[in-house]
């Protein structure tokens, strides 16, 4: 049990700093955003499991050689049953810290989800007052505003895509198709759930490098996935022109020398621009498979150390 707790602690340290830093700097992620997203999720889940598990297993070590046996011993300690082993103050502290951290992560997720849900409901009510349904698509509304804007508003029952009048007037039919395809990809692939999970993780542990780097990386990767979905319907120049129009407020952004370099915003990053301007080759299938295997391994290792710590000591 003690060896398992030390291994879990070491894995938690690796996943809290060097692993996310290395992944955030990796260039291959733009070549396979889906694979990178899976790896980010594995790092987050395995990191949280390792942090909680290290304290849990170490605190339970005096009570048994396996998690099930130790939990049975903890039950006897709590209720003062005969044959109960004693726990030192440091073990009680470790168990309390594990319980508090686990509860903190869960409650932060619930609070963040409730807050986001309330904001979406309020936002949808405002849209009902300030926008008109699109004549060509019942799931799209047009906001009477001159600044080019496009975004999607997720929801359990009525997700909607929002376009401003300024954007509708600035783009031609092909450009509007590109924007709609991009925003609908966010809704169909439920990217809002990923954003919610990583945002709540960052809110719970803002001091952890993994949570900050993961939140930024995931936001960029889901935009790349939406770009890929749009590229199945329109060409890269059309999509790029549409995104720049929404980001800069002008359809002539590409006509001015040097304007592309100045165009990246929080929503249109330089990595996305470079990816659309000069698409690289997709990540080879064996490499993608290897990264997915690493992600699976990251989830299996802390799980195995928790379920069967007696196997390694």
TrEMBL record:
<keyword id="KW-0862">Zinc</keyword>
<feature type="transmembrane region" description="Helical">
    <location>
        <begin position="99"/>
        <end position="117"/>
    </location>
</feature>
<dbReference type="InterPro" id="IPR052173">
    <property type="entry name" value="Beta-lactam_resp_regulator"/>
</dbReference>
<keyword id="KW-0472">Membrane</keyword>
<keyword id="KW-1133">Transmembrane helix</keyword>
<feature type="transmembrane region" description="Helical">
    <location>
        <begin position="289"/>
        <end position="312"/>
    </location>
</feature>
<keyword id="KW-0479">Metal-binding</keyword>
<protein>
    <submittedName>
        <fullName>M56 family metallopeptidase</fullName>
    </submittedName>
</protein>
<keyword id="KW-0482">Metalloprotease</keyword>
<keyword id="KW-0645">Protease</keyword>
<feature type="transmembrane region" description="Helical">
    <location>
        <begin position="36"/>
        <end position="61"/>
    </location>
</feature>
<feature type="domain" description="Peptidase M48">
    <location>
        <begin position="133"/>
        <end position="198"/>
    </location>
</feature>
<keyword id="KW-0378">Hydrolase</keyword>
<keyword id="KW-0812">Transmembrane</keyword>
<comment type="similarity">
    <text>Belongs to the peptidase M48 family.</text>
</comment>
<dbReference type="Pfam" id="PF01435">
    <property type="entry name" value="Peptidase_M48"/>
</dbReference>
<dbReference type="InterPro" id="IPR001915">
    <property type="entry name" value="Peptidase_M48"/>
</dbReference>
């Amino acid at each position: 049990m003690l060896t398992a707790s030390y291994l879990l602690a070491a894995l938690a340290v690796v996943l809290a700093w060097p692993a996310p830093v290395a992944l955030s700097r990796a260039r291959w992620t733009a070549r396979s955003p889906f694979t990178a997203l899976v790896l980010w999720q594995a790092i987050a889940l395995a990191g949280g499991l390792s942090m909680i598990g290290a304290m849990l297993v170490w605190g339970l070590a005096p009570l048994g050689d396996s998690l099930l046996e130790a939990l049975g011993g903890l039950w006897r300690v709590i209720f003062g049953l005969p044959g109960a082993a004693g726990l030192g103050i440091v073990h009680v502290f470790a168990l309390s810290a594990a319980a508090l951290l686990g509860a903190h992560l869960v409650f932060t997720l619930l609070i963040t989800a409730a807050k986001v849900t309330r904001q979406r409901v309020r936002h949808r009510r405002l849209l009902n007052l300030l926008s008109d349904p699109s004549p060509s698509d019942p799931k799209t509304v047009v906001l009477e505003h001159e600044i080019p804007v496009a975004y999607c508003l997720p929801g359990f029952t009525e997700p909607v895509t929002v376009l401003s009048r300024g954007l509708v007037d600035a783009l031609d039919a092909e450009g509007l198709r590109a924007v709609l395809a991009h925003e609908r990809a966010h809704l169909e692939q439920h990217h809002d759930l990923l954003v919610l999970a990583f945002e709540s993780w960052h809110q719970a542990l803002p001091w952890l490098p993994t949570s900050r780097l993961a939140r930024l990386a995931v936001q960029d990767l889901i935009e790349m996935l939406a770009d890929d979905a749009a590229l199945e319907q329109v060409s890269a120049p059309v999509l790029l022109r549409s995104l720049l129009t929404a980001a800069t407020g002008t359809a002539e952004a590409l006509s001015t020398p040097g304007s592309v370099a100045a165009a990246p915003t929080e929503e249109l990053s330089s990595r996305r621009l470079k990816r659309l301007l000069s698409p690289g080759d997709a990540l080879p299938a064996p490499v993608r498979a290897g990264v997915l295997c690493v992600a699976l391994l990251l989830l299996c290792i802390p799980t195995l150390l928790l379920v069967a710590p007696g196997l390694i000591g």
